[in-house]
Amino acid sequence: MRKIVLLVFVLYTSAQASPFDCPSLGDGDSLSQTQLLERLTHSCRYDRLERPITYTEKGSRLPVDVYVRWYIYFMQNLEAHDLQFKIHALLQFRFLDPRLIFRKVSPKRSQPILGEANLRDILWMPHIFLANERDSSIMGTNEKDVLTSVSLDGTVIISSRITATLYCWMSLQKFPFDEQHCSTYLESWMYNTSELILHWEQKRPITFNPDVHLTEYVLKQIWSNESTINADLNDLRHGAFAGNYSSLSFTVQLTREVGFYIMDYFLPSMLIVGASWVSFWLQADQAAPRLMLGTSTMLTFITLASAQGKTLPKVSYIKVSEVWFLGCTLFIFGSLLEFAFVNTIWRRTSNVDVKKLKSKYILRSTLSPRLYETSTFRQHSADSVSMTASSVSERPHTAANYRNYLTKPNMQTGGGVATEETRKFYEFDIGLMEERGDENVHENRNSWTTLTPQEISQWIDAKARVMFPIAFIIFNVLFWTFVYTF
């Protein structure tokens, strides 16, 4: 019995209150902004969970058109090790909600109704998110940095000052001579393209504050794009709802300023490599200073390169900076190897017989003197049996009067002692030439010379003083051509 009475009371109360549940919009000019909005958004007229609905002439429902504008206050330098960048921006949405038109109910009002976050909270809002965000938030307080505007024709504008950290998948193959393209993506979350479509504003959709300045990059270009994202059950960005979703994006092209890297990395690298060549002017037996110079330049360069590389992510591909690092390391390491080579030769006790004072003969005799002399002797002995007069005259020889401050004739006293095999070869070969009446017998007699190990070491150092700088110049030409051409 009590339940029946209670039910009758509820029905009676509802019937009595129903005429007052939907407040009138008459005489809207006499209402305040708050009162007018309360009546416009009353539950009998407005459901903030339902999107604005418009129809075509044929009666089919149209999607909501949401127009977007960005204004960038601040942009932080790209953080290469985290592949991200940070922006402070004004994000603005504009759409039409026919349920909020008050031109007819309040004809004397000429200005839009303005509010902050509390006004936004009672209106329907398009659920739009940053697809490549790492973090985002409203700048300042929610009340302070959200501006809501409702115009006479039902146009709603929501402006929010936000700070966002966004991912930028950087390509560092040409670091530090690289260009980066960083994009910002806006996508609809709840509504697919049959219910909501995103558009860029026609005039100045993306604007940067004129005072925005990046210390490491130069902003070259900006372009925007409107597209549709197809989501399926493998893509959970849209709440696991399959369908086509509207998307907006804008991309900034950033070129890295290389002045810092030239002054703090490349020029010091060149000076360090050049310093490693000082060892070529030190005598080969001065092991302590040459070794200390080589190792100190190597360690200094490795420290310089590692300090620069700490700010970069550990990527699998080779960067241009690493090519420079490897090239300079090889030149410094080459100077250490050259010192080890000439020091080993300097400590030899026997002289070396050289057929001619040319690089290939000196190096071959230095690397394997006994093998070279023996093979030469055997070759000449075999050729002498069947040699004709014309072939004898075509044999390479050195002018009789050729002398060099690093060489001494091996037949002279004090000029070094020739090996026994070499002397036998001289006597055998010259004897044959005398029998045939060869006019070049005297030139051939003085063609072979003897070099001391110390002389060979000094000759190698003298060549290194020229070859290393020339090779480094060629490396620089190839490197900088690649950097600014490809």
TrEMBL record:
Q: GO molecular-function annotation terms? A: chloride channel activity; extracellular ligand-gated monoatomic ion channel activity; ligand-gated monoatomic anion channel activity; transmembrane signaling receptor activity
Membrane topology value: Multi-pass membrane protein
| One Gene Ontology cellular component annotation held by this UniProt entry | plasma membrane
Q: Which residues form the Neurotransmitter-gated ion-channel ligand-binding domain?
A: 33-257
Q: Is Cell inner membrane a UniProt keyword of this protein?
A: no
Could you tell me where this protein is found in the cell?
Cell membrane
The catalysed reaction is: chloride(in) = chloride(out)
The source's superkingdom equals Eukaryota
Question: Main site of residence?
Answer: membrane
Q: Which InterPro entries does UniProt cross-reference here?
A: GABAA/Glycine_rcpt, Neur_chan_lig-bd, Neur_chan_lig-bd_sf, Neur_channel, Neuro-gated_channel_TM_sf, Neuro_actylchol_rec, Neurotrans-gated_channel_TM, Neurotransmitter_ion_chnl_CS
Q: Which UniProt key words apply to this protein?
A: Cell membrane, Glycoprotein, Ion channel, Ion transport, Ligand-gated ion channel, Membrane, Signal, Transmembrane, Transmembrane helix, Transport
Record flagged with keyword Ribosomal protein = no
Pfam families per UniProt: Neur_chan_LBD, Neur_chan_memb
Q: Which residues form the signal peptide?
A: 1-17
Q: Which residues form the Neurotransmitter-gated ion-channel transmembrane domain?
A: 267-480
- Residue stretches spanning the membrane: 265-284, 291-311, 323-346, 466-484
Q: Which PANTHER family match?
A: NEUROTRANSMITTER GATED ION CHANNEL (PTHR18945)
**What does the sequence similarity comment in the record state about its family?**
Belongs to the ligand-gated ion channel (TC 1.A.9) family.
The protein's name is pH-sensitive chloride channel 2
Origin organism of this chain?
Glossina morsitans morsitans
